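To whoever is on call:

I kicked off a structure prediction for a single chain this morning and the downstream step that reads the tokens threw a length-mismatch warning. I double-checked the sequence; it's 768 residues and nothing unusual in it as far as I can see. Pasting both halves so you can look.
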Amino acid sequence: MGQEVGKRIDVVRYRTNLLAIVKPLSVPPQKTGNFFFSASELPSRARLLHENLRTETELILQEADKICDHHYSLLGYTDLDYGPKIDWHLDPVHGQRAPLKPWFKINFLNFAEVGDHKVIWELNRHQHLTTLAKAWCFTRQENYVREMIAQWYCWQHANPYPLGINWASSLEVAFRSLSWLWMRHLVAGCPAVPEKFDADLLQALALNARHIERFLSTYFSPNTHLLGEAVALLFVGTLCPQLPAAANWRDYGWRTVIEQAERQVRPDGLHFEQSLYYHVYALDFFLHSRQLAIRNQLQIPDQFDRILGRMLDVLEILSQSGQPEGFGDDDGGRVFNPRRNRAEHMTDSLAIGAAAFGRPTSAASLTEEAVWLFGEQACSSSGGKSPTLTNLQSRCFEAGGVYVMASKSASAQMMIDCGPQGPGRSGHGHADALSIRMSLNGRRWLVDPGTFGYVSDDNARNFFRGTGAHNTLKVDGMDQAIPEGPFSWSSIPEVRPDLWCPGVTFTLFSGSHTGYACRPGSVLHRRFVFFLHGEFWLVCDFADGRGSHQLEVFWHLAPDLAIVRTELGFITGPLGASLATDSDEVMRLALVPAEDSAWNSELLPGYVSPCYGKKEPAPVLRVSGHIALPADCAMLLLPLKHPSDRPGKLSPSVKRASPVRVRAYRYEGAESTHYIVFANHQQAWTLGSLSSDARFLYCAIKNSRMAHFVLCRGSFASINAHQVFCHHCSVERFEWTSSGGQVKSFSSDEGVVRSFANVALEFRDSVF
């Protein structure tokens, strides 16, 4: 109620010319706030960037020259021409202009009224003015500063408070405030800055902070919006002590930043918006705030540092096999450099974390942002090295539902989404429960589609966040949740992990969701993923319910890959490579669907959005069928490391299991035959010559003898009437291998190793 009254009072004051003018207080120079660098340190920062990141500084200068000509790259759009006079209310991509009326009367989510508000706001964040200021630091050419000043005053004239879309979001006002503070400190001492500019800037910052304080995002988007607004109040309050309310803004901002870290970050370190982009977004806000707090002797709670450490851990794990694959919404903007808004730039926070906490990282190289914030300390932390692939590790972030399968001996990684769709109505989450993403040798293979846009005149928003755009199962053409507006869902599924078992020679995952449980047929989707380290993944989808349904499983490939059909499935690899021949020494990936006449496999055209506003064509493999439930579908993913490598045949068991629902597959590889059994419940079952009570069982036969055996959550197993494993209670994990005359056993309980009967079984016939 207070915000609604305040909006209308501001309009009355504007119309009667009674908006308050804030008169700065007199503050001794030595008591002004400390930025990330002082005026005397500015030349050394510029020198470090020129010496360590020369290509980056050249890009900044090229961009600055374009900005002087009013040509901008915003989000995924490049070379937008705003003409001689900038229209700050224009969406030039769609030719729409927002009306100049009281900001709270503008429905910025209405595409017909304003176009894409994100495009308008991106320019009005004024981060491009910071680019002009940086160009002056590198060249000392005053034309950059004169253009910066001219655009700043042009904006002030075109955006009288409280009119226009550029006041409609307090977060956007916050971003603009941060840009102005960067400008102020980057051009300190420049003779081209007018004498009155600093006083005008302080006056404008006071108005911004007043607006943010009065209209905090405590109702609409009270997550990263509120966090960004608190950061701006912290910065203005700390760096502008001349303003009467500065101390209050500083204290409220810092207190809120700390509170939001505890509220928005799950115990495992994942940001609760269920979006990698928003995870990095929030992490950057926290890291910038922490460094400013250190520079100004504000107390930093130990818990705050622990939260940031966990957030960095999440990013490090997701980046261990190359650029991290995103999930959830992609906002397209960045806290510091909006040009670095693609997947390969999401590791930038790790470079800041390395300098801030002295933690080593192999996933990020030195960045411009880190140098501005930390100077020589950033260069020492990274050494200017490029990211390298190291021994990968499997890891689960249980609270956020992110499960990472990785091989310690090979640069291969799969990420599985088995977490909540997001807080509240899941505004930035996608309907992607149990979807997977995969990378090999630093290259993305199975990908997330991205976001592309928030509002449009077509259905692009719902397509990119819908189930069919993700690597998971879709039932009867429906999404797992029902979209209601661009930032809201209903019928949000409950997603539950059932099994997570990272072993020495394998990793196993099982999870389910209820997205279709309340729809016709009450379909429950359960997915098993078995990763045999250094060999292959097997992904098995179960659809349990009533009646017949249209089932579709999607496999979305990266835009830089090609795919061809082969006798046993599909092979994908880099564009231009010979995929089905042995003439090229390139990594390829075979996708081998289980032979089942009920399912049809086909290649379709698709799209991937690398950043907001841009999309690229990408191949899609769809496996589908109209099938009576219960039903299952399996896909084997086999990296082909050498030109002569060929996929084998994947077959489902034709024998029925008794008495519970069990599904088994046989994969005939080049040297071994693999038997894989998934059970939905833990109770005794029999399938062919196999008997067990395990939730999962695997064995590999080589030269007619057992070479590998794995059991999860079971107490016994027998093959061909021979008892292979027997223990008095259920065991979480047991694995046994025999290779080159060496026999090894591993278990979650060391006392279980003796429960395996090391018998020399002869396998003359199929196990099932």
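Update from on-call: the warning came from a stale cache, not from the record. Cleared it. Sanity check on the structure: The chain has 17 helices and 32 strands.
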